[in-house]
Amino acid sequence: MDWLLTPGPVRLHPKALEAFSRPQLHHRTEPARALFLKARSLLREAFRTQGEVLILTGSGTLAMEALVWNLFAPGERVLVPVYGKFSERFAEIAESAGLEVDRLELPYGRVPSPDQVARPGYQGLLLVHSETSTGAMVDLPALARAFKEANPKGLVGADMVTSLLVREVALEAWGVDAAASGSQKGLMCPPGLGFVALSPWALERLRPRGYYLNLSRELKAQREGESAWTPAINLVGAVAAVLEKVLPKLPEHLALKAWQNDLLYRVGAELGLSPVPEVPSPAVAAFYLPEGVSYRAVKEAFARRQAVIAGGQGPLKGRVFRLSLMGYYNRYEALGVAALFREAFADILPAS
Ligand SMILES: *Cc1c(COP(=O)(O)O)cnc(C)c1O
Q1: Among 61, 116, 212, 299, which is 20 to 30 Å from 226 by CA?
Q2: Which atom in ligand 1 lies closest to the alpha carbon of residue 84?
Q3: Which of 314, 267, 307 is nearest to 287 (CA)?
């Protein structure tokens, strides 16, 4: 079995594996409805919202698209800070939905400051909480507050794909109205589900568009424990099982994830590697490649040890590599990965 050190998909939680060994449920039966409602209620707790969480069959990008298409009308103006591949994706989705998009372009690895988003004249702000492509984390509550002071009626939509269950998140308490996430990152489940969390205020502002993407239709069905179309019910079962296990010990889990990512950065520093992000997210450690070392050489040094890593995206392609312990790793397995990281670099950078 390979060590998945990629920031999604990740090493699975044993509760997810266990959930997949159950017989197939039919989605329009009582046990399936009970499971669906349980998953939604645990997800509400995970996102910390008094509103609703909708479970969609698709990946995280579908959840981002559903959020944008159902909360904003064509011609509305949104501000989208772009500081990595996923924030770039948010801007592209908003354009595809017919919105008027103002991009706030920042170099990859940096993060927007509250004064940069305190600009009036917008119906919305779209932000990626943990920018997986650069390893950077934004101060979401501070940015949401600054934006709303300038735009009291504006909505804040956040991508929490690699922060949910990796770092503390909250909707209403942080002034976030809607958030998107997926199953194959911090939830330690296989890919295939997207989640859209909506605060009570966002629920009042729903302006559904699309057919499969129509969140009002989903809301109606999901309140009853069903979904409009056939759901990936096996994945819903895995998500419920993992959340049931992790949420009662969430502070310990988040502390472990923070410690593990710091460990990767500590090893990187010992090896003389420079981190990419200005403010690091606990989801992934991103490093610039040392002078004269190709991404291919790093990838192969890890692959010889059965470890799969990730490279750079967009302008960082060929310039960085990324390692993540977002999946199911305990403290001692993480120490083993740290040893593997040192050994891999001993191949690449022989002691001088
Ligand atoms: C993985 C990821 C997504 C979603 O990607 P999918 O491949 O559609 O699941 C979105 N945003 C961020 C920050 C991600 O890391």
Answers
A1: 61
A2: 13
A3: 267
Task: Say how many Å lie between the CA of residue 59 and the centre of ligand 1.
Answer: 7
Spacing, Cα 61 to ligand 1 middle (Å): 6
128 Cβ closer than 6 Å to some ligand 1 atom: yes
Domain shared by 18 and 165, yes or no: yes
- For 109-146, the pLDDT digits (tens) are 999 999 999 999 999 999 999 999 999 999 999 999 99
Same domain for 238 and 256?
Answer: no
Could you tell me the residue range of the domain that residue 306 belongs to? 3-8+249-348
The pLDDT assigned to 54 comes to: 98
The CB of 324 under 6 Å from ligand 1? The reply is no
> Do residue 154 and residue 295 come from a single domain?
no
Q: Clarify whether residues 39 and 179 are in a common domain.
A: yes
Q: Assess whether 316 and 343 both reside in one domain.
A: yes
Distance 349 CA to ligand 1 centre (A): 32
Model confidence over 185-226: pLDDT tens digits?
Answer: 999 999 999 999 999 999 999 999 999 999 999 999 999 999
Q: What is the DSSP string of 240-270?
A: HHHHHHHGGGHHHHHHHHHHHHHHHHHHHHH
pLDDT tens digits, residue range 321-336? 999 999 999 999 999 9
94, 186: one domain: yes
